[in-house]
Amino acid sequence: MKAKLKRLYKQGGPLAIGTKVIEVLNRVFASTAKNIYFKVTPSGKFDFNGNKLKYYRHNFNLAYQNERTVEIPIATWFLNAQEGASRILEVGNVLRNYGCRIKRDVLDKYDLSRGIINQDVLVFFPKEKYNAIISISTMEHVGWDEPDRDPNKIPAALANLRDNCLLPGGVMMVRLPLGYNPYFDEYLKIGGDVFSEKYFLKRISFANEWQQVQYAEVIESKFGEPYNNANVMFIGIMRN
After folding, report:
1. Cα–Cα distance between 196 and 199 in angstroms, integer?
2. What is the pTM of this model?
3. Nearest Cα to 116, choosing from 82, 146, 83, 92?
4. In angstroms, rounded to a whole number, what is the distance separating the alpha carbons of residues 234 and 42?
5. pLDDT tens for residues 64-77?
6. How far is CA 18 from the centre of its chain?
7. 187-212 burial by CB neighbour count: b if 16+ within 10 A, else e?
């Protein structure tokens, strides 16, 4: 910190330091104002396939400011629909952070928390298959945020979950942002054939409101534009 101040002083004297202080204070004020806004305003509801779901508000990972606000309600809706399913798999250790108590196995290659299955989703072969599989903002990292990028890995991993992890009659729901992994975006453009149903939610306001839209409206969407983080969420369902 002292080194940065000295460098600023050498570059522009007291004026440069004063300008930097004002810049930092403005960022802190904007961030604080945003947090207060999301905490005191009513959460409201959004529509997903005719279901009115309540936006999720939670401090962890600033869920009230990003795509978690719709991801968690949709996950809850999906898991509640699997009542009676004896075996459920979550790919990516996400729901634990939001108090989910539904019994399930969790597959996460990198999370070393107790009880997590640390295997690559591409080559995961469980001894017993699952009635239901769910993944929340995890699969977009497959084949992209890895030392060796591979455009074929994400479709292959999805196919592995379908063919080797899901029971006949089972259902899988995968959610991930568009515009993050170009390999997945291209896979969708050519059909995304592992999914029998494809849905899209688009963020439409600073207030973190979301609306279900058609693929044609969001096909060229970008991650982080015009709002921070995901601007379009893909929800794919596969019934075995």
Report:
1. 10
2. 0.79
3. 92
4. 25
5. 678 889 999 999 99
6. 39
7. bbeeebebbeeebbbbbeeeebebeb
